[in-house]
Design a protein that fits this description.
- 39% of the residues lie in helices and 21% in strands.
- A hairpin with a 2-residue loop joins strand 1 and strand 2.
- With 314 residues, it is α/β, with parallel strands linked by helices.
- The strands form four sheets. The protein has a five-stranded mixed β-sheet. Strands 10-7-11 form a three-stranded antiparallel β-sheet.
Length: 314
């Protein structure tokens, strides 16, 4: 049996539906169905009844052993994850989605380099689909992402809490506006996202809660990263949204950034695998939270803080 078959089986058990398990694992439902079916063939027993979906007696017995097997593999990988080739030096892989946590991102990375000069540091750019998967698939050890991750396998440190902005073509009817309200936003065509983009990021980008959980109208283009999004917006092929600091980090011709005055504020966060034993991960998280505590309020004052400092718009 293969680890992916065990992972698919446990995801179905925990999520209660093949479709939700597939979304969690960033796989297609047929792939998850196939993994479970192959596992049952290899074991020679039926683990799940399909209609309604529930564990068989064999499945009940198998679940704790499957969990123990996956936990053992994860523990083995975690024990050597912070070592370089041959165990010669520690390694830390830092994922950054877009601009990460604005000015805090390079400040944290620079501080870590000074504090741990013997650690080999790799910076990995992440696209919108890798909101969680890059961490869980061990492509990176920590990641700067937004919004906050709601997943029991991940721990987060909130680094910024920021207001929201709308990204529109300069030629659009809103191009000359000083600001926008959610009521101006909800009928606009938004850029499409790849099918594997996690729901948390979709809901963040599209203001799903303000739509009553409905999706937006979508423009013709699909965007996986900020550069693709900005190129499409500048061409008049859709609308985007972001945290306020995005405007400071991305200057793009043909694009306007408008504060959305009544949108809920959102977080950018540093994520790590839950209970990761790596000393490098612990050190990076400690530095990140300390720097965010000291510099964050200056760069991005929290809502209701009473600060007279304002976020600079692009």
């Amino acid at each position: 049996m293969e680890l992916r078959e065990l992972a698919s089986f446990l995801a179905v058990v925990e999520e209660g539906r093949f479709a939700r398990a597939a979304e969690r694992l960033f796989l297609s439902p047929p792939a998850v169905t196939g993994h479970v079916a192959r596992l049952e063939r290899e074991l020679g027993v039926q683990l799940l009844e399909r209609s309604p979906l529930r564990l068989t007696e064999a499945g009940e017995r198998f679940v704790p052993h499957a969990r123990a097997a996956l936990a053992a593999v994860n523990a083995a990988a975690g024990a050597v994850a912070d070592l370089g080739p041959g165990g010669a030096e520690p390694v830390l892989r830092v994922g950054v989605m877009g601009h990460g946590s604005a000015e805090l991102t390079p400040a944290i990375i620079s501080a870590f380099r000074q504090a741990r000069p013997l650690t080999r540091l790799h910076i990995e750019p992440l696209d919108f689909t890798e909101h969680v998967s890059a961490l869980l698939q061990r492509k990176v050890d920590v990641a700067f992402v937004r919004p906050a991750v709601d997943d029991d396998r991940v721990e987060i440190d909130v680094l910024t809490t920021e207001s929201r902005i709308l990204i529109v073509p300069a030629s659009s009817p809103l191009g000359d506006a000083a600001s926008a309200r959610l009521s101006d936003v909800l009928d606009l065509p938004f850029l499409a996202l790849p099918p594997t983009t996690p729901r948390a990021f979709r809901d963040y980008l599209y203001f799903t809660s303000a739509r009553g959980d409905a999706g937006p109208r979508r423009g013709p283009d699909q965007a996986r990263n900020p550069h693709e999004a900005l190129a499409s917006v500048a061409a008049g092929r859709g609308t985007g949204s972001a945290l306020a600091s995005f405007a400071r980090c991305y200057s793009w011709p043909g694009v306007r950034y408008l504060p959305i005055v009544d949108a809920p504020w959102e977080n950018s966060v540093l994520t790590a695998r839950r209970a990761d034993p790596s000393a490098e991960v612990r050190a990076f998280r400690t530095l990140a939270t300390a720097i965010a505590r000291d510099l964050g309020p200056v760069l991005m004052p929290r809502p209701g803080s009473g600060s007279r400092r304002t976020e600079r718009a692009g």
